[in-house]
Structure formats: C-alpha cells, structure tokens
Design brief:
alpha/beta, Enolase-like, domain 1, seven-stranded parallel β-sheet, 15 strands, 22% strand
Length: 374
C-alpha cells in the first residue's frame, strides 16, 4: 500500500481515578497515537508505553523519539502490503516493542479497512462476545477495595484481579475471600516479590485463585519455574513474555501455566498471534492484558481477544472505567453479563473522535512518505 503520511501525536488525558500498582501510581496519562494515511484511508495505533519506564524499559518519551526518528521513516519508506510485513521492516531496531506495535497495529487496522473486513476477521478471530474481567489497583484502604469490587461485580465483570505487593496481599485476600468465597479471583504483583518471599507466596494457595501474575523479576523464567514447582496456583507471566521465543522458553521450563498477552509488550499483532499459537499448541491458555489504554488500544485488544485460545476473561473492560470521555465512538461497553460485543464494521470498528483528539494533543509531527520513497 502507498503510505502518504504518518502523523504522530501525544495526547494528555486524565484517568478518572489514580491506578496504583506495586511500582507506582498513575493519574494523568500521556499517550502517543499514530495515524497512518494511505490512499484515502486512515489506520490508527496507540502506544501502550507508560509515562515512566517502570513496567518495562519504554516510556512515552522514549517511544516518541524511536517512532519519530527510526520506525516512522522506516515504515514510510517500506510501503508494506500487510500488517504482518512490519516485524521485518522494524527488525534493525532492537527492543522498543511498544513503539513498534503502535505502527504495526495501525497497518493491520488499515489493511482490514482496505479488505472491508473487521480487524477480528483479519486476525482470524472466532469470538463474537468476550468475557471481561477487571484489574483493581492497590487502594488506600481495604474498605475502599471492598466497595470497588462490589461495584465491578454488580456491573457483571466475570473475574476480579487484585494488584498486590508485600504489605497488600494475604490480609487483603482474606477479607475478599471472606466476603466472596466463590468469585473468580486472581492477583498481579508486577514483580514485587523475591526468593525470600517464597513462603509468603505459597500462602496465596489458600485463596483458590485462578492465577498469580508475575510474582517475581520482570525478566525471569528460571526462578518462576522453581516457584511454580512449589505452588498449586498457576503462575501467569506478563512482563517476562516479550515474544514467541520467551513463551516457548517459559512453557518448556514450566515457569507458568497461563500467559497474559499484551500487544505492546510483544511488539504488535504479528507476534501476539505467534505467542497465542505457540501457547495453544502446548495447551497453555492465554488472556489479553491491558495498559490503561484509550479507545484505540482498547479496540485493538478487543480484536485480539477474539482468537480461539483467549479462553480466560481478559483485563479489557469498559471505557467508562477509565475516562470521563473516551476518544472513540461508540465507547467500549460491557453488558450486564460482563461481555463485550465485538464490532463487525471494517477495521477497528470504533471511530476516532478527531475533534477531541485534536483538543487533547500537546505535540504533533508529520512524516511525509513521498519524501522518503526513492
Ligand atoms: O500488569 O497488567 C498489568 C496497568 C498498567 C501496567 C501494568 C498492568 C496494568 C493493569 C491494568 O493491570 C489493566 C487495565 O485495566 O488496563
Ligand atoms: Mg500484569
């Protein structure tokens, strides 16, 4: 396809309430968006890098530089036919998966529009409705956590994931399980524990959780495999899985029983599908994680979650949990049964509110393709 221009922008959009994990708290999101213009169509991508390089090594600012100086010009000069061409185009750039996913996902969106199919169809999705869970941040008090869980369950969410860390774990799980003995429950430590905490982690088995997400180091398989041997509860890896090879290594070493797939963390739809397939072939279920996305990234997560092996409820939830007004319409909503209905319109299936995006924009750069094509 002929790429006419790539527009990069950073928007500022406040979350409705702060989101706290073991590594810090986020309130004001700074999000990089990419628009790829091609023959009258526009594909959109969202960079899932956070404001600080605390989840992984990327941040809003590192992604901005890599997109503007490296990936944007490479893509504009390459004239790809398919979203699946992007990994090869971006291969000279090491790491920076979230920056890469921003553009690759925009090309998949464009390709689906050009073919007149939904993004889900283009990816080979099989699901029309998605089971939804929520990720609940660390709260100022247990009373506030209980109130939040009550609200999410009343809205229909099928699985509750509690962010945890040393000092916000077993005592909290006890209170939650006392109140709700049977709900589908999981926890996510975002790498907050060390080997000396092994006995404490073994104590988590008492709460009959679906999984314990990324308890130890963000880049580890080996120590997770030792921990998994001592736990009944399956470990789910998030941060550690950056590509298909990582998934194969983790499965081979029995470091986890479940994998969380995030589009940004693995570098885009191509690698997300590869991780999905590798896990499926080996009997490991996957689910789609979230990174506090606006509607564009959320729409991409919806499409990805329609693949067959996304058999567990994901962290993909309603726009209204995050934003006073999302940047897409219709907003992403969840039914009383805790399901998202997958759109069947061509492309991502949610329109971008251009006026709102323009108002939220704090910087913008245009890469004109024709100047780069020989
Ligand atoms: O580990 O899944 C995570 C948010 C920011 C960084 C990391 C994580 C998360 C979440 C939130 O759990 C998921 C969401 O609601 O988008
Ligand atoms: Mg996680």
């Amino acid at each position: 396809m002929r790429i006419d221009a790539i527009i990069l922008r950073e928007i500022h959009i406040p979350l409705l309430r702060p989101f706290e994990t073991s590594f810090g708290s986020t309130k004001d999101r700074r999000v990089v968006l990419a628009e790829v213009h091609s023959e009258g169509l526009v594909g959109w991508g969202e960079c899932t890098a956070a404001e600080h390089p605390y989840f992984c090594g990327e941040s809003t600012d590192t992604a901005w530089v890599v997109l503007l100086q490296e990936l944007g010009p490479m893509l504009a000069a390459a004239q790809p036919e398919h979203g699946g061409d992007c990994p090869k185009i971006f291969k000279p750039v090491r790491d920076n998966n979230m920056a890469k996913a921003t553009l690759e996902n925009a090309i998949w969106d464009l390709e689906a529009q050009r073919e007149g199919v939904s993004l889900s169809q283009l990816l080979g999705g099989v699901r029309e409705k998605l089971p939804c869970g929520v990720s609940i941040g660390i709260q100022p008090s247990i009373a506030e956590l209980i109130a939040r869980i009550e609200k999410e369950l009343a809205e229909g969410y099928q699985r509750i994931k509690l962010k945890c860390k040393p000092g916000w774990d077993v005592e909290v799980f006890e209170k939650v399980r006392d109140r709700w003995p049977d709900i589908m429950l999981s926890c996510d430590a975002n790498s907050a524990y060390r080997l000396r905490d092994t006995d404490r982690l073994i104590g988590f088995d008492a709460f009959q959780m679906l999984m314990i997400e990324q308890p130890m180091w963000h880049d580890d398989f080996y120590f997770h495999s030792l921990l998994q041997k001592r736990l009944e509860t399956p470990i789910c890896l998030d941060e550690s899985i950056r590509n298909r090879r990582d998934a194969l290594a983790a499965i081979e070493m029995a470091s986890c029983g479940i994998i969380n797939i995030k589009l940004g963390r693995v570098g885009g739809f191509s690698e997300a599908i590869a991780v999905h397939n590798a896990a499926q072939e080996r009997g490991i279920p996957v689910w789609c994680g979230g990174m506090l996305e606006t509607g564009i990234g959320r729409a991409h997560n919806v499409a990805l979650s329609t693949l067959e092996n996304f058999s567990l409820p994901g962290d993909v939830s309603a726009s209204a949990r995050y934003w006073a007004e999302d940047i897409v319409e219709p907003e992403i909503t969840v039914s009383a049964k805790g399901e998202i209905t997958v759109p069947d319109a061509p492309g991502r299936g949610y329109e971008v509110k251009r006026d709102l995006v323009e108002r939220l924009t704090v910087r913008k750069e245009t890469i004109k393709a024709m100047e780069l094509v020989g």
